[in-house]
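step=encode ok
step=design start
structure_in=
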């Protein structure tokens, strides 16, 4: 693929984009002192922003940096505390990888976020885009950080109807835009991202407000609405999930920690399992708590829906009781814990689990011992 921005107009594009960014950029916390230009703050913000809206990230970033203002502070945190602070952002593997990256930075780089592409991309969770963003925003390297916003701006500028979700297209965009940001440091890289987020939006772009409209081939041809290729969205499967509310004689509730490598890995919640087609409720309950025999009430205490990126869960919460009064399950180290209902917030959990807890709390008035 050989698609390039018209280099004859590079200087005018740079001036227009720079002037627009100086006056119209959003006042985001990672753009202000003391975080502006700080490699650790850039790394945190970029990891949080992956697949997450800016307005959602802002309060999480501010709370995170107040709690762990340095990479050393994050490296010394427990995984439970990190996951708890991440609760509600989703994609919890990002939090674990960021935590592991902080440890690696302390152990291998003396607490200094590395500046080279090779060393950055060797860190857990740091790919080509995040590496380029850190190098541009923290170290002033003229490296195009091409996310979906930048790729969309580029595709419209060159007037090519391409699929910007493809890695090869983003690589071509980075190659094509390199001369545009050369010698300009990170501010034009950030400006391109901001332009895609605020003006050159996926639907109904605000072309009349765009500083690059005169250099935009798609605008000249009246094709902004058809460029880039719309991302295809398949049907998200809906899956029934069984969750169990089991109490011991003192009124404590049984919680389970999900395996680290799976969905919502490392987070605590009621025992739950995806129900197989036509699977009896008691069979699903047996898989919820292996080796721990329970009797399940048919009527659900409550129902919760939760959408992941690739599937929708419809969680049915059922009350269950241990057969023959046997309440011995694995230890907390093995992923099991009996917890007083009022103390459940001490266990790192997901937004889904918060919904389930709310549904149970509304439906059952006898949870406290």
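sequence_out=
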């Amino acid at each position: 693929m050989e698609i390039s921005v018209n280099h004859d107009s590079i200087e005018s594009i740079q001036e227009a984009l720079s002037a627009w960014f100086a006056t119209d950029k959003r006042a985001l916390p990672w753009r202000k002192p003391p975080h502006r230009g700080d490699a650790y703050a850039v790394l945190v913000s970029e990891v949080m922003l992956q697949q997450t809206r800016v307005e959602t990230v802002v309060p999480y970033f501010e709370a995170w940096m107040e709690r762990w203002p340095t990479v050393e502070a994050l490296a010394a945190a427990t995984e439970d505390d990190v996951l708890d602070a991440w609760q509600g952002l989703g994609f919890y593997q990002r939090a674990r990888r960021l935590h592991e990256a902080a440890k690696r930075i302390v152990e291998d780089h003396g607490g200094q976020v590395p500046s080279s592409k090779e060393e950055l991309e060797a860190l857990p969770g740091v790919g080509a885009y995040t590496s380029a963003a850190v190098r541009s925003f923290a170290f002033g390297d003229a490296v195009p950080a091409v996310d979906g916003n930048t790729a969309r701006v580029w595709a419209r500028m060159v007037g090519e109807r391409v699929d910007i979700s493809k890695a090869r297209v983003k690589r071509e965009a980075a190659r094509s835009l390199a001369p545009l940001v050369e010698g300009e440091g990170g501010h034009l890289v950030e400006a391109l991202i901001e332009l895609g987020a605020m003006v050159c939006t996926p639907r109904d772009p605000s072309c009349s407000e765009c500083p690059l409209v005169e250099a935009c081939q798609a605008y000249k041809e009246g094709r902004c609405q058809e460029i880039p290729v719309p991302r295809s969205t398949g049907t998200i499967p809906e899956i029934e999930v069984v969750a169990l509310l089991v109490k011991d004689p003192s009124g404590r509730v049984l919680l389970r920690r999900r395996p680290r490598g799976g969905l919502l890995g490392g987070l605590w919640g009621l025992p739950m399992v995806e129900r197989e087609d036509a699977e009896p409720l008691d069979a699903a309950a047996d898989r919820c708590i292996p080796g721990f025999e329970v009797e399940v009430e048919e009527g659900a205490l409550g129902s919760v829906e939760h959408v992941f990126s690739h599937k929708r869960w419809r969680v049915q919460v059922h009350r269950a009781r241990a057969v023959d009064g046997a309440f011995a399950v694995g230890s907390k180290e093995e992923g099991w814990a009996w917890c007083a209902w009022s103390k459940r917030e001490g266990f790192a959990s997901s937004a889904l689990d918060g919904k389930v807890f709310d549904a149970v709390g509304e439906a059952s008035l006898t949870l406290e011992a």
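step=design ok
step=annotate ok -> Residues 164 and 349 are 34 Å apart (CA to CA).
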